[in-house]
Amino acid sequence: MPPLFDEPTLRKLDRLALVAAQARAGQIKGERRSTKRGTSIEFADYRDYVHGDDLRRLDWNIYARLARPFIKLLEEEEDLAVHVLLDSSRSMDYGEAEQHKFRYAQRLAAALSYIALAAGDRLTVRQIRAAPAGALPGEGYGPARGRAHTLRLLHFLEDLKPSGLTELDAQLRAYALESRRPGLAFVISDLFSASGYHEGLSALQGRGYEVTVLHLLTPDELDPPLAGDLRLIDCETGAPQDVTLDGSLRDLYRKRVRAWQKEIEAFCLKRGLHYVPVTTDVAWDELVLYQLRQRGLVK
What we know:
34% helix
């Protein structure tokens, strides 16, 4: 299996930052300006110098070695909490090669997470799924901060395997209640959840999260290349359904999928959530580097 990232892609992501519509109090400054002054002497991380920074905070030893100016970050400054919530249920195990839904989701989660780490944000990554037998629910990574965590983050994401059921409402509500630092929350999911998603997303927003829903589907799920008498098997529950798929039924299916997406979009718009429909035939780096920038979610 190819790696999640190559070096040129990492360099492109290095220049990006996640955008919060509202300033949020944090603990370490990262790339975001604060009205507070960091007076702690406990070192936290570095960031690139920008015009207007206090030159007393410049690390002259690093400048002498690398000929690049870096500013020391101290523990009393502010950062942004970033939460990447990745659906790793069995329904995500669908598609082939580069269009495999969970592999695509892993790369998208890795990209958003790396941008957060590179900017000095406080990152938490969490699986959202009902735990299968013998597995721990809610396995996750973080909180972590700084580029030094990149390799461990990528190993964590690489090791994830889709399994179990999706119960978005219960899982998102539980996460909203247990997390101590609201901030940006990116929910990466196909939203195939019998219990729905409304209450879970509302719970996140009610706890102060700025929520982005990245609704991930394959082209086959939007327009299935099937015909004839079929027995369809629910990949999560194993429940069978016999259907005869002809042209008119395919048209009805496509209409209902579009209506479902419009319903989700309308819900998010009403609540002030960001909704991004994603199909796996769009290159994941194009989605991050161009489409999310156009929507103002990264800069």
